[in-house]
Amino acid sequence: MSYHGLDHFVGNTPLIRLNRISDLTGCEILGKAEFMNPGGSVKDRAALGIIRQAEKDGLLFPGSTIVEGTAGNTGIGLTIIGQARGYKSVIIIPETQAPEKIALLRALGAEVIPVPAKPYSDPDNYNHIARRLAAEKGWFWANQFDNLANRQAHFDTTGPEILAQTDGTVNAFVAAIGTGGTLAGTSLFLKSRNPNIATVCADPYGAAMWGWFTQKRLDLDDGDSFAEGIGQGRVTKNIEDLQVDKSYRIDDHTAISLIHQLLREEGLFLGLSSGINIGGALRYAQDHGPGKTIVTILCDTGQKYQSKLYNPEWLAENDLVP
């Protein structure tokens, strides 16, 4: 027998058939159960990939501190995987994120610094604060948005897993963009094996990637979203050479209705980013007809969003009752 620590068990998550929308569309719509990673989200893959590359480059050693600007899930992954490998974590997080995330990060042992939510163009954006702290204190800045170890982790793991789990029958891969690592790394691998596998972006309203992929514009202002951890406003290094075959706008009400339906009918308890992804998979199935195998990402569970997404009063106040 061979035994391993926690960091060995990132990845190799199952594909779950989303029964209701698969039956309704005549497609096989499958969700990669990334909430089954040790830190509870798809971001564990990026965290492990970034840490391993930094170790290889001599940037991390026992007792080092990792600092990162994150909406939460990457911070959780960096914290638990970092602890498993001997590192401390400092997390800079926009104060608009779900209070459950901030409390969880602190419970896990990270030093958490909530800051006002500001755009990337502002010098006090949470990413810039993380970069400055790294330079001032000699910490390692994970830099998930522009660190290509992020997408490489998905090229090395998520893509091969999906190809193997579908026995090569996958027709499309659908994912929203946060840093871009998941969509870019996974789809680059899949297309390297079969160029006909479609790369599909599901974008929330208010994010810029739909405009970039459809019109090469980053300045379209078409609304807003409550989604956390997705909705990029710039072309990061992880996506600057990514070719997307189809891009969809998915509104919050659709995404919330989908995750509530999946909880009620299939026992899946998911966050809003998963709903955006599933909405994109559903749109692709509707546009391309039955018989397709479509894979998307179930990013995390609804546990960190109970005060909002699963709170009837909050849903009613925001006109988002499913």
Automatic annotation (TrEMBL):
GO molecular function, one term: cysteine synthase activity
EC number: 2.5.1.47
Cofactor(s) listed in the protein's UniProt record: pyridoxal 5'-phosphate
Entry keyword Ubl conjugation: no
Enzyme type, top EC level: transferase
Catalyzed chemical reaction(s): O-acetyl-L-serine + hydrogen sulfide = L-cysteine + acetate
GO biological process, one term: cysteine biosynthetic process from serine
Domain Tryptophan synthase beta chain-like PALP intervals: 8-300
Keyword Transferase included in the entry's annotation: yes
Keyword line: Amino-acid biosynthesis, Pyridoxal phosphate, Transferase, Transit peptide
InterPro entries, sorted: Cys_Synth/Cystath_Beta-Synth, P-phosphate_BS, TrpB-like_PALP, TrpB-like_PALP_sf
Source taxon at top rank: Bacteria
Record pathway: Amino-acid biosynthesis
UniProt family annotation: Belongs to the cysteine synthase/cystathionine beta-synthase family.
Protein name per UniProt: cysteine synthase
Species annotation: Luteolibacter yonseiensis
